[in-house]
Specification:
Layout: H1 17-49, E1 53-56, E2 59-62, H2 63-92, H3 95-112, H4 122-145, H5 147-150, H6 156-183, H7 193-196, H8 198-218, H9 231-247, H10 250-279, H11 285-313, H12 315-335, H13 339-365, H14 375-404, H15 407-413, H16 415-425, H17 431-434
Helix pairs in contact: 1-4, 1-6, 1-8, 1-10, 1-11, 2-3, 2-4, 2-9, 2-14, 3-4, 3-8, 4-14, 6-8, 6-11, 6-13, 9-14, 10-13, 10-14, 10-16, 11-12, 11-13, 12-13, 12-15, 12-16, 14-15
Amino acid sequence: MQQEIPVVVAEFKKNDPHVTTGWAFFDWANSAYSLVITVAIFPGYFLSMTNDSVTILGYRMSDSTLYAWSISLAYLIIAAVSPILSGIADYGGYKKAFLRFFTMLGALACMSLIFFTGMSTLWVGVTGFILATIGFAGGMVFYNAFLPIIATEDRYDALSAKGYSYGFIGSVILLVANLVVIMNFGWFGFPDGLRAVPTAFVMVGLWWIGFSQIPLKRLPADQHLHTDENLMKKGYQELRKAMRTLNTDFNAKAYLVSFFCFNAGVQAVLLLASTFAEKVLGFETTGLIGLILILQIVAIGGAYAASWLSKRKGNKFSLMSMLWVWTVVCVVGYFVKTGLDFYFLAAAVGVVMGGAQSLARATYAKFLPENTPDTASFFSFYDVMDKLSTVAGTFLFGIVEQLTGNMRYSVLSLSVFFVISIVVMLMVRVKRMETAPA
């Protein structure tokens, strides 16, 4: 008979405002990377520092395709390693340790981008960007895994929305500071705005490390299991245990499939919209940053609106509504001709951006067995779907542009993901999810 795997669980008071607010501050800390680096500043800087066409390992591609595929590679790597690390985190008690490791990796790699100054240092730009993205993505599974530990189920939606809103607010503050430096480069001794851009990479890294200390101090301490057993093997067993549990729940599996599809589209839009705006519509960096600031402010309201709607109509209704909006965004994106059109489209994205992401995380938490200590292992499946879907979305975006030479077709192709997600979501039903008050 197989020996039961022991689990160390510390007594912990849920819904403690000191702890839940600290948890939300991790979004404040690391969202600066996802906004300032991957969305607002680095895409344009990368395209400015590279030739329109580059050759990597003998394969010729556009610089925007290289950028998209760099994101794909980063998320593919973390998708491969995070499940087993999650099992180790649950069995050995290393959730916070892994959260700290990936935070440091991401922040330091982000700061290393200051040494990316042109084609001669392209390897620095690509490697630093990939490692920073791994750090960002790797930390999220352990951060998300704390949600059911620190809060009761009735608080999931609101607390998840709080985290995303903190992320939006914090990243907007830092982006404004970066914009001041770039637009007023002479004040800071730079010859032009482009030379001032790398200061943002250092500022983001310091912001990331600094504010992450708040959740790292407030979240429950790791309860290490003192054992001579092989943690890698036990971590794998812990993962299999979670897999067997999920495998018996059709609705949980269907939800993960639906999430995979719509997250592929969402992440591709968020990560690559800047390259589309710059290459297709001719946006300047400062104009693009201003647009993104507006989008982030709208997204704060969108996250709370999604939480409010889920209380009235249920999570499924809220998600389905947002998926239809995302589908329309991709179709309309194909026809966008002017900067003004793009502003209106970005406003629509802002409304559903925060809502879709915060509600997706909170909804999955409701599929977990109640009072389970194996939150990292269960969230590793969500994390794998998150990362692999990001790979699928960014890879499809890049390959369509590579084959057609037209990024508009890349945007249109993403609508397929949302249509499939809607079809699958129609089959999802979970009582714990559908009993939101009317």
